[in-house]
Specification:
The protein is of the alpha+beta class and about 450 residues long. It is about 55% helix and about 15% strand. It contains ten helices and 13 strands.
């Protein structure tokens, strides 16, 4: 059963229950009101009937009004009709004859109205017997029956109108749900996550539901795009890693085959072993960087401690100067700069940035390391990068057009470490204007002098 049908059925059921209760209550109230009037009339009529029996002779008048039956019950339950033929006294006589003398005496002593089948009666003592005045209830039953029939006919008409109008109103109210169901079917069948639920702009339950579903669809779409990008990055990463590893592996395999076939003489063997060692170191460096990126991608928890960034920068500059003594390196920083960071990761940032300068700038190119609260900046005075290279600088395995040194993972690792600390890495470069790499860290750093 559809929601429309269920709502309409529930509405009609409530209406039927309400009309039924109203009909029963109104019939009960009307019957009680009419019976109360009959009782009042019955309690007044016996005195009038007895007075006329004691003083007969009033012309054109019986012992009681015409709508009552007056009976005189004597010894041995002998019943005599004192009223006329209208209303018919037969039923009243038959019902009174069924009563015992004790029952009649009890009713006469209480002088309260009592019920007989189809009749309402009252009894009063009179001479050696009892006067019984009875009123037929046919008119009361007819009035109540007519009321019930009128209510049933009215209820049928009202229910028919309610069914027609209710179906239209409920269908109109559920129309937004039908549109949402059609949109959901289209999304399911076509897979178009850009589709959105239609909204009317009204503050209704359906409008709020459509807005909530649209938010959910946006998040699902974002999740699907993120997963697609992640899968694409994984495929690209695997392809690039395979390409990078293929070159050194090919070199090592080539020298191994030459040695196995005896093609390397005693003079050529040392150079071949040197090349094998160089390629092995290159593969080891590549694998190490790949593992580092994999750990950072898995959001491995950091071990933040209070570290002095100035000391870390001084150590990195000293190591870089030992590796390249002819390169001028300068530190622009306060005496002390304490930050809550993962010390080993920040050391790696300094090492990678300085190694990147060493690999991509000519010998003797000056570089400066600047430290500010929340900022690490490394700038060189080298040839700079083209706009295309600068835009792709943090892509994995990307290397600038003018050089092929390195694995192309140094800057991506720096960016991943910055992201792990809740910060980010930025690069500004232009041809003949040098390169600046800026790392922002959200942790509070305080200079001390």
């Amino acid at each position: 059963m559809t929601l429309n049908a269920r709502l309409l059925t529930g509405l009609l059921a409530i209406a039927v229950a309400g009309l039924t209760i109203m009909g029963v209550v109104s019939a009960f109230v009307l019957n009680g009101y009419l019976m109360h009037r009959v009782d009042d009339d019955l309690q007044a009529t016996p005195g009038h009937a007895v007075a006329r029996l004691l003083r007969p002779g009033f012309p054109g008048q019986g012992v009681a009004p015409a709508r009552f039956v007056v009976l005189a019950v004597g010894p041995a339950n002998q019943v005599h009709v004192l009223s006329g033929d209208t209303p018919d006294p037969g039923r009243a006589v038959a019902e009174v004859e069924k009563l015992s003398e004790a029952e009649l005496a009890a009713h006469a002593s209480t002088r309260e109205p009592f019920s007989l089948p189809g009749l309402r009666a009252v009894a009063r003592p009179w001479r050696n017997g009892v006067i019984v005045v009875a009123s037929p209830l046919d008119e009361i039953h007819l009035a109540v029956r007519n009321l019930v029939l009128a209510e049933i006919a009215t209820a049928v008409v009202l229910l028919a109108l309610l069914a027609l109008l209710g179906r239209r109103l409920i269908g109109r109210g559920l129309r937004p749900l039908d549109r949402m169901a059609a949109t959901a079917d289209a999304i399911t069948a076509g897979g178009d996550l850009r589709a959105r639920m239609p909204g009317s702009g009204e503050r209704t339950e359906a409008a709020r539901l459509a807005a909530a579903i649209n938010v959910m669809l946006e998040r699902i779409e974002q999740a699907f795009w993120a997963r697609s990008r992640s899968e694409a990055r994984v495929r690209e990463f695997a392809a690039d890693a395979s390409h990078e590893l293929r070159t050194p592996l090919t070199t090592v395999q080539g020298y191994a085959e030459l040695y196995r076939h005896g093609a390397l003489g005693p003079d050529e063997l040392p150079d071949a072993m040197r090349r094998i060692e160089d390629e092995a170191r290159r593969m080891n460096k590549l694998v190490t960087d790949l593992l580092e990126l994999a750990r950072l991608d898995r959001e491995v928890s950091l071990r933040p401690v209070a570290a002095d960034l100035v000391v870390l920068a001084q150590d990195a500059i000293a190591d870089a100067a030992a590796a390249d003594p002819d390169r001028p390196l300068r530190l622009d920083a306060p005496d002390t700069l304490i930050a809550t960071v993962d010390e080993s990761r920040i050391r790696q940032v300094f090492v990678n940035l300085l190694a990147n300068i060493r690999a991509h700038t000519p010998p003797g190119t000056a570089a400066t390391v600047r430290l500010e609260p929340g900022v690490i900046e490394v700038a060189d005075e080298g040839p700079g990068m083209s706009a295309a290279d600068a835009e792709r600088a943090f892509e994995r395995f990307h290397r600038a057009e003018h050089g092929t040194a390195g694995t192309g993972l140094g800057l991506p690792i720096v960016a991943a470490i910055a992201a792990a600390h809740g910060g980010r890495a930025e690069l500004r470069s232009a041809p003949s204007r040098g390169t600046i790499v800026r790392i922002t860290l959200p942790n509070s750093t305080t200079p001390e002098r």
